[in-house]
Amino acid sequence: YLKELGFNVDFAPVADIFTNSENTVIGDRAFGSSAETVSEMVPMYVKGLQDAGVQATLKHFPGHGDTKEDSHSGYASSYKNLEELRQCELIPFQTGISTDVSFVMVGHISLPNVLNSQTPASLSSVIVHDLLREELGFNGVIITDALNMGAISENYTSQEAVISAVKAGADMLLMPSDFINSYAALRNAVYEGEISEQRINESVKRIIQIKNKL
After folding, report:
1. From the candidates 10, 66, 145, 171, which is the catalytic residue?
2. Annotated catalytic residue 72
3. Reported confidence tier of residue 67, pLDDT bands at 50, 70, 90
4. 25 closest CA partner among 60, 71, 59
5. How much is the pTM?
6. H-helix or E-strand containing 104?
7. CA angle 167, 83, 156 (to 5 degrees)
8. What is the C-alpha to C-alpha distance for residues 86 and 88, in angstroms, rounded to an integer?
């Protein structure tokens, strides 16, 4: 249906595991409450979309299912450490990546027992580059969750958010709250050497590779 309507990307499937009954943002958006169930469903969904010519997106890396708060309105924290994430939340993302998924969307969840701060995952190079790109071996396009959500907009300027996200390793920036000034800030960061042109070109190359699949 999406293909017939002219869509070529779907921000799905949700690869989160619904492990916290108090979670108000994931709920029945998840395929289930166990890593086994979600890990079985996610690659099938990816394959179904991409076989039809619609590029799939795993979200919300590294897993929004264990949070109590909603990152649409403010900080949302998971208190798991990195090893606990590897044993549960990361498993569906690993199986989805193994199906050659085109996109992974990084969420704005905070991981204080991994990062020792409330920094959202989407702005952290430890999560975006070290964990997703390097450890899990994802070579496709990394996109942020919407940057006008409360976890970002209540704690960072739009300009700070886009620069931090690109430095962390994001290729695409979804819905900054102030697009014009965010664009100018990112452009100036490149002109001034804060972000290298090579870093931008790496993202452009990944985006073009996905476009060539369409």
Report:
1. 145
2. yes
3. confident
4. 71
5. 0.94
6. strand 103-106
7. 30
8. 6
